Amino acid sequence: MIRAGIHGATGYTGHELASILDRHPAVEIAFGTSxxxxxxxLADLYTQGPDLPLIDPSSAPVGEIDFMFLCLPxxxxxxxxxxxxxxxxxxxxxxxxxxxxxxxxFEAWYGEAHPxxxxxxxxxxGLTEIARAQLAGARLxxxxxxxxxxxxxxxxxxxxxxxxxGSVIVDAKSGVSGAGRSPKQHLQFVEVxxxxxxxxxxxxxxxxxxxxxALAAWTTQPIDLIFTPxxxxxxxGLLSTIYASLREGWDEARVRETIxxxxxxxxxxxxxxxxxxxxxxxxxxxxxxxxGISVVKGVALLTSALDNLVKGAAGQxxxxxxxxAGLDETTGLV
Length: 334
Ligand SMILES: NC(=O)c1ccc[n+]([C@@H]2O[C@H](COP(=O)([O-])OP(=O)(O)OC[C@H]3O[C@@H](n4cnc5c(N)ncnc54)[C@H](OP(=O)(O)O)[C@@H]3O)[C@@H](O)[C@H]2O)c1
What we know:
The strands form 2 sheets. The chain has a 7-stranded parallel beta sheet, sandwiched between helices. Strands 9-10-8-11-14-13-12 form a 7-stranded mixed beta sheet. Helix 1 packs across helix 11 (310-325), helix 6 runs parallel beside helix 8 (207-218) and helix 6 crosses helix 9 (252-262). The mean pLDDT is 97. It has 11 helices and 14 strands. With 334 residues, the chain is of the alpha/beta class. Helix 2 links the parallel strand 2 and strand 3 (54-55). It has helices at 12-23, 42-45, 77-86, 103-110, 128-135, 146-160, 189-192, 207-218, 252-262, 280-283, 310-325; strands at residues 2-7, 27-33, 54-55, 67-70, 90-93, 124-125, 140-142, 164-174, 197-198, 223-231, 238-246, 269-271, 289-296, 299-306. The structure holds NADP nicotinamide-adenine-dinucleotide phosphate. NADP nicotinamide-adenine-dinucleotide phosphate (NAP) binds next to helix 1 and helix 11.
């Protein structure tokens, strides 16, 4: 049995992860932490929460686990990750702490110096379908952000094939759980219900450098990324609508064939038939990323739906851990 610890078990991603690992046949949850709810049980905090006693992070028996999952805010996760690595555990970090390669870029986007820049070069960016070979031997995995997972899985086949030219425009919508469980005024029911609002428009969202870093590794074509996320009045789910300019010679049949052949046999990528586009309901409560494909006037119009808490966070973290541990990648996941 693999012994796993979860830091930040009471947050939305922590609860989702604890629920998945609770059903996982090869994993035993050794502990879940919370500063504010230590001494309580996760089942008392969430109506459908698994039976998991919560302990203070300072008393986590880090030397007794094989895998550490970090569901903490950015900059909080890095020191915990380093302590776990020192104790011999393998780490899957759901925060943004190890996603960017350059410490200066982290500081520019996250407003603080990186707590452990020396680890940035050894972290594997865990977009599972693309990174399997590196994941197998990885000790530290940076789980991708929810928006980047949806956008990058859609664009990877075209970027790698050299199909993209110039601009990529992403119009994305996320459910409110994407912002975490801490109360904030703009996330209250009255503000969100029956509403739809853009935020961090253009190039202001922290996921922009993460997406550009990955795209730059896959294509030599310069790409202008414009990304506008929206807060949608649903609890979970994420839909990205992507408009990507294509180079000469790329029509719909070639785009579809390229994406379908890239993901042939992938258990968690579903490509919709001609004429259909992705909706939140295609992926809700699953580890799937669901893609729809059209080409209009030389522009690939891709829709990409996933559940931000599953494929966008906890599900992909377990998928990565399965690969790291040499298990069937789908174990414990639907
Ligand atoms: N929500 C998503 O859809 C999503 C998707 C992908 C990635 N992520 C990333 O995953 C991480 C966790 O996100 P989340 O949505 O689960 O967050 P959340 O709901 O706000 O939960 C945060 C967790 O971290 C703990 N914590 C420890 N130190 C904290 C601190 N200084 N401030 C606040 N909480 C602290 C909290 O419990 P205590 O306060 O009791 O210790 C709680 O268990 C974040 O880095 C986020 O960016 C989230």
